[in-house]
């Protein structure tokens, strides 16, 4: 009565085959990460040293370190964050907590989706036109960072809005029914419970910002500038552009140099991402629900 | 409606209350008198409008945005749709307890003090509106509120713990305790026991019984036995209309209306 039939056996084989196929596809996805990291570490690690991180490039960028580029990237990311976090978080709070469901809100959401879809080179041209020329910031850290900020705003808004909406609606209802205003509800209940998600989103944004090349090429990153910028109105070197330059524009570069630059860049991003995961775990454990 | 009791004072009085969710009319000409200081039950089958009526009383139903209301609701003699009514005061004076206990993700102590901190002070008006309660006052308020809901002895040693670690019954009691520091006059309860086990239900019913007199309590319930046990007056709703409202003892023994009788006997619903 309960014996297996030929059809059962066939269905089981198909099911197993599909499982293996999908498992294979998933492993395929991990492969590039392993190869990229492996090659970078293998070829780039000879170039790494304390001096590499703390010295200026020399001999027409074929020797020396990457200090100005490293500092430049950090400066670009910091200024971009200062510009994008207040705007992005405020917009997300409005969209999640205040906005009624009407045509204006839908238009704003559409705009955010489209902003996220704009190619980075188009952002670069926009930054050149708007910040460098129209606002007269010149090619500077400020112009480049503002361009990066606009490019990463959708990421901040979407991730912040998602973490706000992950806070159970019943908490808000409890507050409203006790006569708390929306603002009191946001400050006392919603934000404290969404902060881990918001921070994670911001750190992911940092890692994206650090690697961007096109938006800063026309707006503030310099080809070669062996000293540190003094203000946000100066140009700066940046790791991503420096990598492009030593890999393609400068002759007679030792092979390990571009790989070393790439390793530093990706190391920065990985450290930020791990920090974000760690922070999220710490904050999650402190959650009271 | 004919033999609705004529108590000395009405806490809630609705006249010709109609309510629409968009095009759907949920309440039809509801005239409802809830006597002050008593426990009044609202019974009726699902979708009959009892929760809607309950949520109209603190105007939380308007949060949905597509709600339209006509008619009047007076709470303690004041029209809650009046021109100079502050919604936040309405919600402060009229506490609401939900089906599913919804303690805030804060400590037990902070849950009790939340309303107080939201509204400034226990009296809420006048000169001391801005004065912050001292630590000692806060501790006293916490103890008093938790004693009122019969929870103090269980939680007095762990007031700093997250409220979510309490059992459902204790959470529901905490949700009631949370309302008390701002001194509401009316407590609305939307099936306050339906997420609880029989022991929890008994404990919360006992609590509700102990609160009557000090507070006007309006309870929505699906549970006929609970309505019979835990309320003094009962109102039966059907299809958005208030069919019958009388003393609980009377309603369950000799309902006036045939549909009330059929519902109480479990012929539908």
Automatic annotation (TrEMBL), chain A:
Compartments, as annotated in UniProt: Cell membrane
A GO term for molecular function: phosphate transmembrane transporter activity
GO cellular component, as recorded: plasma membrane
Coiled coil (residue ranges): none
UniProt keyword Cell membrane, yes or no: yes
Membrane disposition: Multi-pass membrane protein
Keyword line: Cell membrane, Membrane, Transmembrane, Transmembrane helix, Transport
GO terms for biological process, alphabetical: phosphate ion transmembrane transport
Pfam family membership, one: BPD_transp_1
Regions that span the bilayer: 20-42, 62-95, 107-135, 141-164, 185-204, 259-283
Chief localisation class: membrane
ABC transmembrane type-1 domain boundaries: 70-276
Family: Belongs to the binding-protein-dependent transport system permease family. CysTW subfamily.
PANTHER family cross-referenced by the UniProt entry: PHOSPHATE TRANSPORT SYSTEM PERMEASE PROTEIN PSTA-RELATED (PTHR43470)
Name the record gives this protein: Phosphate transport system permease protein PstA
Automatic annotation (TrEMBL), chain B:
GO molecular function: ATP binding; ATP hydrolysis activity; phosphate transmembrane transporter activity
SUPFAM superfamilies: P-loop containing nucleoside triphosphate hydrolases
CDD domains: ABC_PstB_phosphate_transporter
Keyword Metal-binding: no
GO cellular component, one term: membrane
Coiled coil residues, start to end: none
Keywords from the UniProt entry: ATP-binding, Nucleotide-binding, Phosphate transport, Transport
Transport is among the record's keywords: yes
Identification of the protein by name: Phosphate transport ATP-binding protein PstB
Source species: Enhygromyxa salina
């Amino acid at each position: 009565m309960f014996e297996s039939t030929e059809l059962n056996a066939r269905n089981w084989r198909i099911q197993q085959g599909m499982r293996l196929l999908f498992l294979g596809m998933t492993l395929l996805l991990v492969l590039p990460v392993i190869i990229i990291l492996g090659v970078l570490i293998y070829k780039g690690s000879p170039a790494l040293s304390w001096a590499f991180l703390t010295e200026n490039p020399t001999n027409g960028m074929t020797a020396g370190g990457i200090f100005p580029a490293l500092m430049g990237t950090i400066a670009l990311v910091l200024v971009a964050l200062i510009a994008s976090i207040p705007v992005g978080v405020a917009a997300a709070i409005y969209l999640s907590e205040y906005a009624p469901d009407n045509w204006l809100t839908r238009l704003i959401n559409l705009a955010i989706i489209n902003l996220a879809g704009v190619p980075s080179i188009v952002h670069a041209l926009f930054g050149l036109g708007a910040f460098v020329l129209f606002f007269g910031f010149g090619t500077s850290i400020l112009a480049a960072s503002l361009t990066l900020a606009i490019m990463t705003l959708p990421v901040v808004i979407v991730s912040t809005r998602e973490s706000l909406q992950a806070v159970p609606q019943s908490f808000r209802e409890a507050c409203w029914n006790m006569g708390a205003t929306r603002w009191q509800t946001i400050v006392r209940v919603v934000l404290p419970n969404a902060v881990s998600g918001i921070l994670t989103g911001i750190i992911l944004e940092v890692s994206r910002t650090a690697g961007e090349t096109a938006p800063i090429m026309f707006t503030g990153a310099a080809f070669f500038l062996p000293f540190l910028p003094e203000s946000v109105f100066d140009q700066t070197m940046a790791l991503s552009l420096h990598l492009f330059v030593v890999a393609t524009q400068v002759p007679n570069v030792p092979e390990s140099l571009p790989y070393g630059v790439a390793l530093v860049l990706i190391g920065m991003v990985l450290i930020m991402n791990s920090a974000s995961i760690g922070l999220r775990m710490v904050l999650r454990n402190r959650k009271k629900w | 409606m004919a033999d609705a009791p004529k108590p000395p004072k009405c806490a809630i009085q609705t006249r010709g209350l109609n309510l629409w969710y968009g095009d759907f009319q949920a309440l039809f000409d509801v005239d409802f008198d809830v006597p002050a200081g008593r426990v009044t039950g609202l019974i009726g089958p699902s979708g009959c409008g009892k929760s809607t009526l309950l949520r109209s009383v603190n105007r939380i139903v308007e949060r949905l945005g597509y709600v339209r209301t006509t008619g009047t609701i007076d709470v303690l003699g004041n029209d809650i749709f009046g021109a100079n009514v502050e919604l936040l005061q309405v919600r402060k004076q009229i506490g609401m307890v939900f089906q599913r206990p919804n303690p805030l993700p804060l400590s037990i102590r902070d849950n009790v003090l939340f309303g107080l901190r939201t509204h400034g002070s226990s009296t809420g008006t006048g000169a001391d509106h801005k004065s912050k309660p001292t630590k000692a006052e806060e501790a006293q308020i916490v103890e008093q509120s938790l004693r009122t809901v019969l929870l103090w002895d269980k939680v007095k040693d762990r007031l700093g713990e997250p409220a979510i670690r309490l059992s459902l019954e204790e959470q529901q009691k905490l949700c009631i305790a949370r309302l008390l520091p701002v001194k509401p006059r009316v407590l609305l309860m939307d099936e306050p026991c339906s997420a609880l086990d029989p022991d929890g239900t008994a404990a919360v019913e006992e609590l509700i019984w102990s609160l009557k007199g000090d507070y006007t309590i309006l309870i929505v319930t699906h549970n006929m036995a609970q309505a019979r046990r835990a309320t003094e007056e009962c109102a039966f709703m059907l299809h958005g209309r208030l069919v019958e409202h009388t003393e609980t003892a009377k309603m369950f023994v000799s309902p006036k209306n045939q549909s009330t009788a059929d519902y109480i006997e479990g012929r539908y619903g």
